Amino acid sequence: xxxxxxxxxxxxxxxxxxxxxxxxxxxxxxxxxxxxxxxxxxxxxxxxxxxxxxxxxxxxxxxxxxxxxxxxxxxxxxxxxxxxxxxxxxxxxxxxxxxxxxxxxxxxxxxxxxxxxxxxxxxxxxxxxxxxxxxxxxxxxxxxxxxxxxxxxxxxxxxxxxxxxxxxxxxxxxxxxxxxxxxxxxxxxxxxxxxxxxxxxxxxxxxxxxxxxxxxxxxxxxxxxxxxxxxxxxxxxxxxxxxxxxxxxxxxxxxxxxxxxxxxxxxxxxxxxxxxxxxxxxxxxxxxxxxxxxxxxxxxxxxxxxxxxxxxxxxxxxxxxxxxxxxxxxxxxxxxxxxxxxxxxxxxxxxxxxxxxxxxxxxxxxxxxxxxxxxxxxxxxxxxxxxxxxxxxxxxxxxxxxxxxxxxxxxxxxxxxxxxxxxxxxxxxxxxxxxxxxxxxxxxxxxxxxxxxxxxx
Length: 457
Ligand code: SF4
Ligand code: SF4
Hints:
It comes from Panacagrimonas perspica. This protein is of the alpha/beta class. It has helices at about 40-55, 65-75, 90-95, 100-105, 120-135, 140-145, 145-155, 155-170, 170-180, 195-200, 225-230, 235-245, 260-265, 270-290, 300-310, 315-325, 330-335, 360, 370-375, 400-420, 430-435, 445-455, and strands at about 5, 220, 250, 290-295, 325, 350-355, 380-385, 420-425, 445.
């Protein structure tokens, strides 16, 4: 049987190299502890400066809704320049940004070290932090981003039944819309009463202690994530089995809090810092004990690799964790390079629509998931590098759901035309959002579940 084929867009040459820009981007630490960070006068000055540069550039117009909103505000203003836009309308641009980071990492030629020093996502983050501090974020959005609390409650068996039934009931979805601002048609994930920690039976020490290869130590402590714990425990089980099948020792991090990404997207930096206080000592302990770290959700890996280090640039624990946390497919491809990946796949996967999520692309690790899936014989891959539009609460909330579906539309059209057997993305929310846009005519799966299926284990 022939080795898997990639059907369309080729990987960026150089594996994950930036798509635009003049040199390797550098990023400034986030000055979130200073009072000046929350001062609206310098914030508005910087917003005006950057909005003006973006208006002259327009390169990001198709990435999300923030840029079309910005350009319309300017083009329809009295002066047709940024000085003609009412300052209070500046927030309309901020409200459409979900911090996917694509405009910084893959598009903008003016990021530092360029003298224009444009960091659009972190300017949006600062504006969101000001909004949050000013009490302008509603209770419903604060509640929705308490992913661990919601997951913990929803996994109590009798509650699980009720929550999942409510999700399926159009009448109850209207109630949920009024209470929490969740659009009645948005895809809401299923909850499970047996969490990943209940379900995954990991016996450490059953394998010979890890064999190092390249940057990997062959021993993985898994940061399960809120979504992995309560919404996709089966995927966590699949990941553990694939790792162990490849002679990688695995344990679950026993006690964890949310990585903080949902709170970051809200501008609630104090909560991000609180979660960091909980998670970092535990993760650092595992690193000191010789384990590598991994999380099954790209956004959570990105938090430990990028956002928390930029918030705490001098924290030794944070830097040690940053250096040791991996994306699952990045890890497996390191093992493959050393000849340690079992490529004896037994089942072809057919035709896949594989979506590379934004928060994985911006890690600059290259399309490792696609590369591994390509090793599976009898597998064809429709490779999609485009934002799905889901991005946390953006695809859920009543006021942004229509935009989220609009952003997903080109992907949905392409996947429909490709007539695939599976829709897959490392971001399970993105895969569900795309499948939802297709009317759930195709199953959405995590790629690690497909790898397990291909192994027949
Ligand atoms: S970070 Fe993403 S959502 Fe925000 S402005 Fe940039 S491309 Fe748009
Ligand atoms: S973020 Fe950069 S690339 Fe995008 S529109 Fe603004 S200046 Fe242009």
